[in-house]
Known about the structure:
Blueprint: E1 11-15, H1 20-31, E2 35-40, H2 43-55, E3 59-64, H3 70-84, E4 89-92, H4 108-134, E5 139-144, H5 157-176, E6 182-189, H6 195-198, H7 202-210, H8 220-231, E7 242-245
The structure holds nicotinamide-adenine-dinucleotide (NAD).
Amino acid sequence: MSVSFDFTGKCALVTGGASGIGRASAMAFAAAGAQVALIDLDEKGAAETVGAIKSAGGNAEYRLCDVADETQVGAMVQWVADHFGRLDIAHNNAGIEGANVPLVQWPGDDWRRLIDVNLNSVFYCLKAEIAHMQNHGGGAIINTSSVAGLIGGFHMAAYNAAKHGVIGLTKVAAMDYATQSIRVNALCPGLVDTPFIQQLPQSFRDRLDFATPMSRPGKAEEMAQAVLWLSSDAASYVTGHALVVDGGTSLGGIGTRFDDLIPA
Ligand SMILES: NC(=O)c1ccc[n+]([C@@H]2O[C@H](COP(=O)([O-])OP(=O)(O)OC[C@H]3O[C@@H](n4cnc5c(N)ncnc54)[C@H](O)[C@@H]3O)[C@@H](O)[C@H]2O)c1
């Protein structure tokens, strides 16, 4: 992936960096010259990402942290500040998918865990990151939401609620700190080809492609390009924005293609 941004001298924290979008974002920040603090629960994947960054000549270290645990998040952000001596950019991205059942059947425990991992974690990260940035000249924060944070979705009660919540939190944080050189934005990916969706049956994935005007899933690297732009000075007047990168999925219409039904 070619990277046209320069983050030399900056430190970027990426949660969920062991896989998928977070891995692509961490690798892109490193390729653009940033030191990367890679945060995840998955030690094997985290070590692989850091190894790939170092093999490419970049600078990264990982730390294990459950982002759903406020105490761990506070200690993690302190570690980043101590270890790298700074924190300029944070990509709060870790997330899980959860159950895929109609609302009435959503188990309460699954609902609570998903809200903890996909929403409460963003609140914990924002609190700790902003508290640091306020005293160190500001920074840029990108929270991974989803098109599911903008529109409805079948069987996705907790996921949709969490991703809508991430956009709400992003807007409030952006307003609260707009005069303190801290910009806070959200990324809203559509379908992205990562382990997150690779586990779905092919028939399911075909249906999702069909509902995407570009008729293909996005690449994690295409998400990373948007994250780097939002983090860069090129976006210096952009805050509180939910940037949709979805191949057209959220444009609406009747929600699926039907050109295959039209006789040639
Ligand atoms: N792939 C998609 O189609 C898609 C679409 C829209 C939004 N998203 C969002 O993008 C983000 C990344 O998804 P992905 O597709 O790269 O998934 P992924 O499963 O490839 O990566 C998610 C990473 O988050 C980590 N993680 C999960 N729970 C954690 C926790 N409690 N603490 C720390 N790390 C944790 C996992 O170990 C994993 O490395 C998620 O927030 C997801 O909701 C993904």
